Amino acid sequence: MTAQIIDGKAFAARVRADVAVHVTRLKADHGITPGLAVVLVGEDPASQVYVRSKGKQTVEAGMNSYEHKLSADTSQSDLLTLIDQLNTDPAVHGILVQLPLPGHLNEDLVINAIDPVKDVDGFHISNVGLLGTGQKAMVPCTPLGCLMMLRDHHGSLSGMDAVVIGRSNIVGKPMAQLLLGDSCTVTIAHSRTKNLADVVRLADIVVAAVGRPEMVPGDWIKPGATVIDVGINRVDAPEKGADKTRLVGDCHFASCTEVAGAITPVPGGVGPMTIACLLANTVTACCRANG
Ligand code: GUN
C-alpha cells in the first residue's frame, strides 16, 4: 500500500482564504479589523522564524499584526505589564506569547495572565478546562489543525482507535481531548509507555508529537491507519553536502508510507495548519469580543 498524502499546505491555504473572507466582511459590515499581538522574549532562532511567519500571514489575511520583541533578560513584571496593556487594548483581539520562554520566567503565570477571551493559543487554564469539559473553548492551534485534517479525510471519527504519542500541554493533551470529543477511543502514550510499538499497532489514527526524529517506523503502523506527524526536527543531511540539513517528522516517512492509508508529510503537513488555525482563532476571538 502507498499512503495517500494529506496535503496540509493546500488545506491551510483554503483555511487562510476563508479567514480572509471573514476579515473582509468584518471590516465592511462592522468597521472592525481583527488584531493579533505576538510577544517574543529572547532570540531563539526557531521562535524568530515562527513569529515572522505568523506576522506575515496575519497581514496577508487582512488583519493587523502587532509584534513585541523583548530582550532575553526581560523581567517577569515587565512582561506581565505588557500583557495587561494588551488585555485592555481594544485593537488587540488575540494575544500569543511564543514559547518556550527564557528559564527565569514562569510560563504558567505568564499564560494565565492573558485574558482567556484573547488567548488564541488556548493555553489559559480556563480554556483548558472548557475544552476538557466539552464547552466552547479557544482550542490550541496545532491539535485543531490535526483534527481538521482528520475530519476532512475521514468524515466521522466516531469509534476509531486513536493513539497520541506525546503528553505535552501544547499538543498531546489537547489532541487527546479533541479526539475524545469526536468519540474516538483514545490512548495517550509517552516516553514511559511500555511496549509502545504494540500500543501504536492497535491504532486507526496515530498522532506523533514527541519531538524525536523518525522515531516511529512503518512496522509500528497498522495497515491502512492514518498517521498525523506533528514533529518538525532538523537533522544533518550529509547526502546533500557538508553542513546541510533537512527537516524530518517524528515518523519515518518512507516506511510509514508503505503501510499507512494516509499520512501527513514533513514539511507541508501539520506545520502550515498551525498558523492557519491561529488566524482562524483570532477571527473567532474578534467575533466573540464584539458579540
Ligand atoms: N511554541 C511552539 N508551538 C507553539 C504554539 O503553538 N504557541 C506558542 N505560543 N508557542 C509555541
UniProtKB/TrEMBL annotation:
Catalyses which reaction? Answer: (6R)-5,10-methenyltetrahydrofolate + H2O = (6R)-10-formyltetrahydrofolate + H(+); (6R)-5,10-methylene-5,6,7,8-tetrahydrofolate + NADP(+) = (6R)-5,10-methenyltetrahydrofolate + NADPH
Give the domain of life: Bacteria
Q: Where is the Tetrahydrofolate dehydrogenase/cyclohydrolase NAD(P)-binding domain?
A: 140-288
The UniProt entry, under SUPFAM superfamilies, shows: Aminoacid dehydrogenase-like, N-terminal domain, NAD(P)-binding Rossmann-fold domains
User: What is one Pfam family matched by this protein?
Assistant: THF_DHG_CYH_C
Give the Gene Ontology MF terms in alphabetical order. Answer: methenyltetrahydrofolate cyclohydrolase activity; methylenetetrahydrofolate dehydrogenase (NADP+) activity
Return the InterPro entries for the record.
Aminoacid_DH-like_N_sf, NAD(P)-bd_dom_sf, THF_DH/CycHdrlase, THF_DH/CycHdrlase_cat_dom, THF_DH/CycHdrlase_CS, THF_DH/CycHdrlase_NAD-bd_dom
Q: What is its EC number?
A: 1.5.1.5, 3.5.4.9
Pathway as given in its UniProt record? One-carbon metabolism; tetrahydrofolate interconversion
- UniProt KW keywords: Amino-acid biosynthesis, Histidine biosynthesis, Hydrolase, Methionine biosynthesis, Multifunctional enzyme, NADP, One-carbon metabolism, Oxidoreductase, Purine biosynthesis
Q: Where does NADP(+) bind?
A: 166-168, 232
List the coiled-coil residues.
none
**Tetrahydrofolate dehydrogenase/cyclohydrolase catalytic domain span:** 6-121
The UniProt entry's sequence similarity note says: Belongs to the tetrahydrofolate dehydrogenase/cyclohydrolase family.
Function comment:
Catalyzes the oxidation of 5,10-methylenetetrahydrofolate to 5,10-methenyltetrahydrofolate and then the hydrolysis of 5,10-methenyltetrahydrofolate to 10-formyltetrahydrofolate.
**Cross-referenced NCBIfam families, in alphabetical order?**
PRK10792.1 (NF008058), PRK14186.1 (NF010783), PRK14188.1 (NF010785)
Under the subunit heading, UniProt states: Homodimer.
State what protein this is by name. Bifunctional protein FolD
Q: Specify the species.
A: Mesobacterium hydrothermale
